[in-house]
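[User] Once you have settled down, look closely at the record that follows, and write a paragraph about the fold.
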Amino acid sequence: FAGFFRRLPGNLGFILSNFPAVRAITCICVAVYLLQTLASLFVFRVSTADYPQGYLLRLDSLLSEVFGMYWPWFSHGFIWQPITYSFLHGSFLHLR
């Protein structure tokens, strides 16, 4: 991968090839963006006692609640959320 990163335009190639922490964070952000994009294609019908006919739940919405800062779940033990929320993306422009 080092050769690939060196060929990127401008200072981006220099930064990604010489600073492994920046490279790791960049790769994680891109991977999470791709995962969120793929998850948006999946929709599930969920039935509960309140909604016996069911309602539609998008998988990317669930990912946002589990890994984003969602207070009801954080207060019930989802303590990883202050770290993982920073890797979630709203759109492609947010990734840039």
Observations:
- The mean pLDDT is 80.
